[in-house]
Design a protein that fits this description.
The chain is an all-alpha fold and 289 residues long. Helices cover 76% and strands 0% of the residues.
């Protein structure tokens, strides 16, 4: 009977390699769960693809003159445009679950105070992104489409291609969704110590100019959509300053006194000890005299 081969002792290298592989396996499993939920959402929404597209195009169709409609230039557009919209809708709806999977993967490596800071930021960032999309659909779309249609020259029939319309509105949705994250960015920067509410107030004029520049870059080339993006960004920036000011309170007199006592009785550094010894040695000859 042959003896079993001796077991190879585990080394720090093998332990680290095993830990890395286990983390990669967990990440793969969580990404697969997120993809599965997206596929389920897509399957549930596909039967309503045309209804979703009709709902999305309502602000434009209501702005068009009577008898005008949208057109499909490409042969496959009547199928591909609603399918693309349905896929994007499935991705948008499942954002909370996808972020939860990423959070569950990263949370074990965070400290308790980091978890307390990250949890409300994640929830509020998702809510603000959805709020930005709702603002774009309910406020921006009717104004922008009404403006475009009203400025059409006489004799020009406004008939928008369904694919180009989808690209246009998706760009606006992303622009307003990301723009509404401004309070989260400002609060996170203050909480991490990268800046202060006072400093944020000082750079307010530059932020206002930057908001209009961002509106010019992220929105279509018209003044209305640029202004409708820049003004909310500025207001949300002010909201971020307000919330960060409430979260960073000034220390009380007792806290200042305690900090002063701690500073007074703190241990001496090596350099300070050497300076103190040099001063004592310099005073010794004077005492002997």
């Amino acid at each position: 009977m042959k003896a079993d081969p001796p077991e190879t002792p585990e080394t720090p290298e093998t332990e680290a390699q095993g830990s890395l592989i286990s983390h990669l396996v967990e990440l793969r499993d969580r990404l697969l769960r997120a993809l599965l939920v997206i596929a389920i959402a897509l399957g549930c929404l596909l039967p309503f693809a045309n209804d979703l597209y009709a709902w999305l195009a309502t602000p434009l169709l209501e702005s068009l003159p009577e008898g005008h409609s949208m057109v499909a230039i490409d042969v496959a557009s009547p199928f591909l445009a609603p399918f693309k919209l349905t896929l994007l809708a499935a991705l948008t709806i499942t954002i909370p679950y996808t972020l939860y999977q990423l959070w569950a993967f990263a949370a074990p490596g965070l400290y308790a105070h980091e978890k307390r800071l990250a949890t409300p930021i994640l929830f509020s960032s998702v809510a603000l992104f959805y709020l930005g999309m709702v603002f774009a659909y309910a406020v921006v779309f009717p104004l922008v489409f009404g403006f475009f249609v009203s400025t059409a020259p006489e004799g020009v029939a406004v008939m928008t291609d369904i694919n180009r319309f989808l690209d246009f509105v998706v760009k606006l949705f992303l622009a307003f969704g990301v723009a509404f994250e401004v309070p989260i960015v400002t609060v996170a920067m203050v909480m991490m110590g990268a800046t202060t509410p006072k400093r944020l107030r000082e750079i307010r004029p530059y932020v206002i100019v930057g908001a209009f520049v961002i509106g010019m870059l992220l929105t279509p080339p018209d003044v209305i959509s640029q202004t409708l993006l820049a003004v909310p960004v500025w207001l949300l920036y002010e909201a971020g300053i307000l919330f960060s000011s409430l979260m960073t309170r000034t220390p009380s007199k007792d806290e200042d006194k305690t900090r002063a006592n701690e500073e007074r009785f703190r241990p001496m550094s090596e350099q300070e000890m050497e300076q103190e010894l040099d001063a004592v040695e310099a005073e010794e000859p004077k005492r002997n005299e």
